[in-house]
Amino acid sequence: MTQQTFGPVMIDIEGFSLSAVEKQNINHPNTGAVILFSRNYSSPEQIEKLIIEIRQARNGHILIAVDQEGGRVQRFQHGFTRLPAAATFTDSPELAESAGWLMASELLTIGVDFSFAPVLDIDCGISEIIGNRSFSQDALLATQLASRFTKGMNNAGMAATGKHFPGHGAVALDSHLTLPVDNRALESIQEKDIYPFKQLIAEGLESIMPAHVVYPKVDELPAGFSKKWIQQILRSELNFQGVVFSDDLSMEGAASIGSFSQRAELALSAGCDMVLVCNNPTAAEEVLSSIPVTENEQREQRLSRMIGKPHLTRTQLMQSQKWQVISKQISDLCYA
Q1: What stretches of 68-152 adopt beta strand conformation (E)?
Q2: To bridge 84 with a disulfide, which of 55, 88, 173, 307 should be the other Cys (CB 3.0-4.6 Å)?
Q3: DSSP letter string, 146-175
Q4: What does DSSP assign to residue 275?
Q5: Buried b (16+ CB within 10 A) or exposed e, 15-50
Q6: pLDDT score recorded for residue 155
Q7: Using H for helix, E for strand and C for coil, what is the string for the chain?
Q8: Digit-coded pLDDT (tens) for 29-41
């Protein structure tokens, strides 16, 4: 039997093991990845077994992802080093690269391919959903810290994902709950918010996630559904060659687009390589069944760069002096 390639949909699962229906969904030709959440995690040993089960359920390639930024957004905690919020590194810039390496190394040993990190949003002091998830309110410093964090991830064997293009930090509303609108002109966004994306793209950033935010001075559609943002600005003007992941299509910031199948269709036609459908199994099945099954060599090549490349087993990592020193440094920083 021919092995399936990466499909264009990222789905999730309910618990600590797979149901029969989840196994079928994972093996659907349109599935390309599974994202894990806190509800899927009880220990490093359990999550490693679950990831093996996910891979065994698919006849072909599949990516395993998680949100493990640190601070408020760290899905796996017990058994993993507690990571501080990105803004913490403003006062300890020398540890940003070490933190990226640590986060990535720990995940890679249990079979996760990548974490959706780093956040490249510039905090403007008004967004509660971003806030200290941003490295800094200063675009230059945020870029420098994110670059170091990304370098650490890459050195561990993990690809990075910059989010949320072109910047979510200047709106107060949470796109999980509503559709934020950023009324600034393109020039203003380019001067500040796009700067980290531009710099990290030049350094080889592997993937980007657009924001569920409308920038009406540029386009009436949210960035993740906009050909102008993805194809014209991100691909053509910034020359981004990596993966574009949609943000979760179940978020309220995507609801204005229409049904779940309509959201997926528009995001993919706008230029996303993969769409996320989380916390709604019915919606995920709707999207999987509605998208035509097609092979896409360019998408396959881009997504293949997201495959994790672990250098050590979990036991080898934890026995290494490098991990022991850095884990203590980051823990101390987190609880300082």
Answers
A1: 68-70, 73-74, 114-115
A2: 88
A3: HHHHHHHHHHHT---EEEEET-STT--S-T
A4: E
A5: eeebeeebeebbebbbbbbbbbeeebbeebeebeeb
A6: 98
A7: CCCECCCCEEECCCCCCCCHHHHHHHCCCCEEEEEECHHHCCCHHHHHHHHHHHHHHCCECCEEEECEEECCEECCCCCCCCCCCHHHHHCCHHHHHHHHHHHHHHHHCCCCCEECCCECCCCCCCCCCCHHHCCCCCHHHHHHHHHHHHHHHHHHCCCCEEEEECCCCCCCCCCCCCCCECCCCHHHHHHCCHHHHHHHHHCCCCEEEECCCEECCCEEEEHHHCHHHHHHHHHHHCCCCCEEEEEECCCHHHHHHCCHHHHHHHHHHHCCCEEECCCCHHHHHHHHHHCCCCCCHHHHHHHHCCCCCCCCCHHHHHHCHHHHHHHHHHHHHHHC
A8: 999 999 999 999 9
Residue span of the structural domain in which 271 resides? 77-325
What is the tens place of the pLDDT at every residue in 100-117?
Answer: 999 999 999 999 999 999
Q: How far apart are CA 47 and CA 52, in angstroms?
A: 9
Q: Is 29 contained in some domain?
A: no
Domain count of the fold of the chain? 1
- By annotation, the residues acting in catalysis are 176, 247
* 14 in any annotated domain: no
Sign of the dihedral defined by the CA atoms of residues 287, 291, 293, 299, in that order: negative
pLDDT bin (cut points 50, 70, 90) of residue 174 is: low
CB 59 within 8 A of CB 305: no
**Alpha-carbon span 319 to 81, nearest angstrom:** 14
- Which phi and psi (to 5°) does residue 200 adopt? -70, -30
pLDDT in tens, 230-254: 999 999 999 999 999 998 898 766 7
* The predicted structure's pLDDT at residue 237: 97
Which residue type does 288 have?
Answer: L
The encoded tokens of residue 153 equal: 């991830």
Residue 40 lies in a domain: no
What pTM value is reported for the model?
0.96
CATH number at residue 201: 3.20.20.300
